[in-house]
Design brief:
CATH superfamily: HUPs
Bound molecules: adenosine-5'-triphosphate, the ligand O=P(O)(O)O[C@@H]1O[C@H]([C@H](O)CO)[C@@H](O)[C@H](O)[C@@H]1O
Strand order of the largest sheet: 1-4-3-2-5-6
Enzyme class: transferase
Order of helices and strands: EHEHEHHEHEHEH
Number of strands: 6
Protein name: D-glycero-beta-D-manno-heptose 1-phosphate adenylyltransferase
Keywords: ATP-binding, Carbohydrate metabolism, Nucleotide-binding, Nucleotidyltransferase, Transferase
CATH class: Alpha Beta
CATH topology: Rossmann fold
InterPro entries: Archaeal_FAD_synthase, Cyt_trans-like, RfaE_dom_II, Rossmann-like_a/b/a_fold
Domain Cytidyltransferase-like: 29-122
Low-confidence stretches: 168-172
Mean pLDDT: 93
Strand content: 15-25%
Length: 172
Amino acid sequence: MNTREKILTQDQAATIVKQWQHEHLNVVFTNGCFDILHAGHVQYLENARSAGDRLVVGVNTDHSVQRLKGPARPVCSEHDRCRVLAALESVDAVVLFEEDTPIELIERLLPDTLVKGADWALEDIVGADVVLARGGEVKTIAFLDGRSTTGVIERVLESYGRTVCRDEKKTL
Ligand SMILES: Nc1ncnc2c1ncn2[C@@H]1O[C@H](COP(=O)(O)OP(=O)(O)OP(=O)(O)O)[C@@H](O)[C@H]1O
Ligand SMILES: O=P(O)(O)O[C@@H]1O[C@H]([C@H](O)CO)[C@@H](O)[C@H](O)[C@@H]1O
């Protein structure tokens, strides 16, 4: 399978989620920026997938990330962030959302299980009320300490500063 096919429009995602639920599959939803993927993201998504039968990942668009994390972010474009996520075996579908929160997407998809990392308190998880109201589950997943995209960026800046690579074969 060409994993690119996992990257769906919201209409396509709504259709496939309905089909999976018709097949009595537990559809898990999570969301995030997933800029510069790291081992914490990978472990998180594997745990999210194991909470059900299919995992749908909502990804903030570039403009949404900029509003959330500042004008210097994202480092990786929404296309590239979706493409990397789609290549993970634990991810069954990837869908962009442009709003500040995934509430409209969650209301549209109505997943069976909503998951976020333990850096989010249960009461702060957007969409929890929607999922719980229809008898679904909301879970937080343990954090892999010491891994964050911000940390990766900070380490790169410490190591390379803002010097441009001298070797023309290297690209920043
Ligand atoms: N180290 C980690 N262990 C487990 N889950 C994580 C980890 N880092 C992020 N996540 C989860 O991955 C999802 C996406 O988070 P996000 O893209 O903001 O990652 P991040 O590394 O925290 O990014 P940033 O440093 O830019 O805030 C969230 O649900 C978050 O809880
Ligand atoms: O990558 P992040 O910052 O963990 O993802 C954010 O999650 C927010 C969360 O769903 C709130 O419970 C969400 O509102 C925001 O749009 C980012 O996806």
